[in-house]
Amino acid sequence: MRIGIVSPYSFAVPGGVQGHIRDLAATLRGAGHRVEVLAPAERGDDLPAYVTPAGRSIPVRYNGSVARLTFGPVAAARTRRWLRGGDFDVLHVHEPLSPSLSLLACLLARGPVVATFHTAIPRSRALAAGRGIAQLVLEKVTARIAVSSLARRVQVEHLGGGATEIPNGVMVNHFADAQPLDGWPGPGGAIGFIGRFEEPRKGFAVLRDAFAILAAAHPGLRLLVLGPGDPARATDGLDAAVRERVVFLGMADDATKARMLRSVDVYAAPNLGGESFGMILTEAMAARTPVVASDLDAFRRVLHEGRAGELVAPGDGAALAASIDALLSDPLRRKQYAARAAALVAANDWPEVAERVREVYVAAIEACGRPTGVPLPA
Amino acid sequence: MWWLAGIVGAVALAATYLTWTASRVERLHSRARHAAAALVDKLNLRAEVALLLAAEASVRLGRHAEAIRVGARAALDSPPDQREAAENDLTRILRDLPLPSDDEVLADLRVASRRVAIAKEVHTDLVRDALNSRSRRATRLFRLARDLCRPTYFNIDDPR
């Protein structure tokens, strides 16, 4: 199948949507499909061979964070040329309602279009700016995918349409086969945390309080933190002796992230809210690291109502400490969670997820009255 | 003379808009038609997979095997206006099978059901788009949809 994928965000900056597109493209290519990606980028950027740069991206405030977007006549011309040259069986756009390449490609497309919606935030500026444009874009879309049931609900309630729910993928082997970092978890055990620890909604302060309780009961226990931020400010209020046992890795690449998840006995997700999917929990599950997470809708779903990990009340440091304490003292229970998580996360493995995306491609192509090009296995 | 040029320009614009709208309406209807055909195709596939299942696992399924055979045949043979009811019956029969839902023997049926669900989702969206295009003012005023069959929703329960 010839597949054209459009990324609204630049590959030069890390992000959930970009990572999703990169892994999807790699998996589909591995399955023998011809995949090309159009993304905001400069010609000089270090890009995989199958990515076509569509020009410089401009930082725009969007959904409460800064997204780098590409828009304008040059981008439109390059998008048109890429569409014509690619001769795709199906065009797959991501976040087509953000003012971006995806929206452009959607408007210029002639054939079947599949659109994936990642965000679960109902009122996007693009929508508020132009109902008419949104209507035109959605009319071009043949089939819709939502990566979470929250994103799907936004579709149903705000855009008047359905969507097939296909969860985000994870490269299970990448995490399951990673080697722990040298010297970890260590004899005293270790807890892990990944994210912008200075953002209040990530709940690092709750984990810090929990760690202060746990440190007394577990001599040698360490806390391993990966993510951008100022360590000194984040550990404010901890005793110097306890503070020494909190190790910050700073920002790190994907390989280090996978090794980090394998380096800890328990992964903690003390978030206070605002999570729509909880990709990091899926990754911890793939790394076979038991998870203790806040009882949020998104997390409860990822952890299969608590079967794949422990759920605790958000914001409750003592409860978090108690739950982690119980896991640290019971290796058999940790193994049980790891085994259940590994079985459940198989459905999120990229080959499985990409196959489900391919089924939507086929449905979109058929709905446009075209032969699907590939025989369907019965 | 300027007023004449103005009128000619306005008429040309209106004609362009109408042509564009007409082709848009036509395209949306054609998509809905193809989506309906694709959905029926996926429903046929599911019924055929169900018949295979009844044959392959007849011992384990016991009396359920006969129910599947009857339900799947009814779905495949039903006239278009009774198809929805027949499909819902088949969905119910398949839902009540005495096998764990992750049983190996049900693997093909799981895939077939998933494809029905996707095709139904797509069909519903495209029918809605086509119906919306019919109710636009320009479409009604100039009867742009008069030669196009009115697409209808296909109301079936989600198979799983």
Descriptive notes:
The complex is a heterodimer of chains A (378) and B (160). With 378 residues, chain A is α/β, with parallel strands linked by helices. Helix content of chain A is 42%, strand content 17%. Chain A has 16 helices and 15 strands. In chain A, helix 1 (16-30) crosses helix 16. The model of chain A is unreliable at 373-378 (pLDDT under 50). By secondary structure, chain B is mainly alpha-helical. In chain B, helix 1 (2-56) packs antiparallel against helix 5 (107-134). The model of chain B has no long low-confidence stretch (mean pLDDT 88). Chains A and B meet through helix 16 of A and helix 1 and helix 5 of B.
Structural class estimated from helices and strands of chain A: alpha/beta
For the secondary structure, the number of strands of chain B is: 0
User: Shape of chain A from CA axes?
Assistant: elongated
Helical amount among residues of chain A, as a percent range?
40-55%
* SSE string of chain B, helices as H and strands as E: HHHHHH
**What CATH architecture label of the largest domain in chain A applies?**
3-Layer(aba) Sandwich
User: Quaternary status of these chains?
Assistant: heterodimer
Summarize, please.
Chain A is 42% helix and 17% strand.
Structural topology:
The complex is a heterodimer of chains A (378) and B (160).
Chain A: E1 2-6, H1 16-30, E2 34-39, E3 51-53, E4 58-62, E5 65-69, H2 73-86, E6 90-94, H3 101-108, E7 113-117, H4 125-129, H5 131-140, E8 143-146, H6 149-158, E9 164-165, H7 172-176, E10 190-194, H8 204-217, E11 222-226, H9 231-234, H10 240-243, E12 246-250, H11 254-262, E13 266-269, H12 279-286, E14 291-294, H13 297-302, E15 310-312, H14 317-328, H15 331-345, H16 350-367
Parallel strand pairs in A: 1-2, 1-6, 2-3, 6-7, 7-8, 8-9, 10-11, 10-13, 11-12, 13-14, 14-15
Antiparallel strand pairs in A: 4-5
Helix pairs in contact in A: 1-16, 2-3, 8-14
Chain B: H1 2-56, H2 58-61, H3 63-77, H4 83-95, H5 107-134, H6 137-141
Helix pairs in contact in B: 1-3, 1-5, 3-4
